[in-house]
Amino acid sequence: MRSLTIALALFALTLLIGVGAVVHADGLPRPMIVGGTDVPDPNPYTYQVSVGTANSYFCGGSLIAANWVLSAAHCFVDAQTGAVTDAATLVVRVGLRLQSTATIDNNRAVIQLITHPSYDRATSLNDIALLQLATPASADWVVPTADAANDPALTVPGTTSTATGWGGLLGYDPSQSEPTGGQQYPDILHVVQMPIAASEICGINATQICAGEVAGGKDTCQGDSGGPLVVSNGPGGYIQVGVVSNGPGCAAAGYYGVYTRVGSFHNWIATVINPVTLLPQAYLPLVMR
Ligand code: ARG
Asked: Does residue 116 have an active-site annotation?
């Protein structure tokens, strides 16, 4: 939800580092409240991008082509009015591990923002968006995406899934709007692994996926929206199956994070990225014998 999105100024992140909330001097990963860890260096999750404005970030995204980012529609659509963000105000940061180290080299302008035409603010269905970058990132950073054919096998309940993001570190109950005492945001990219849950337990639509531990403790949270949920795709490789969409609270026991099911939107993605150029057709005369 737009109202829940964070617009963290980069100097605020510097303050967080100042109080030692997230950055560890020994550089070792630590378990965090939402159950994740700091990503290692070099960062294996090269497809992860940060989506924001000139001096903030508010969502995640993934490079699905060198010049295309997959994200969530709700990151760009005002929850109250339905107004869509002007793409000219957006800055995507690629190849980023620490928000505080972002330079102009990480920045990409957005020349096209396409939110799914059927995105529904009330139900959060079709919560998916595509952003075309003005200048490409490295083609080596791209993550492949699931399609309708391979999706069922990739998302069998119990499969380990991996989510990444710079979203909130503190879990909280669905009855709260944020953790008691406020949320904390990391400077460093976080990664969490959790099992994909059966759709029946989450009460979700077929175009969504849910993931998390029954006991809670591992989840994405505010600020992770639009970021990728991936599963293993052979040695060292990943395939994106979900986009962080919503969830009741964060990491609460008995609740799960809800992700847009990428395999359900493969055709939409393909059409947007590779629009079919309609050439004049030459028709053969139908000869009746
Ligand atoms: N809608 C949130 C955002 O804008 C993401 C929420 C994910 N919540 C969860 N419990 N998994 O950042």
From this structure: no
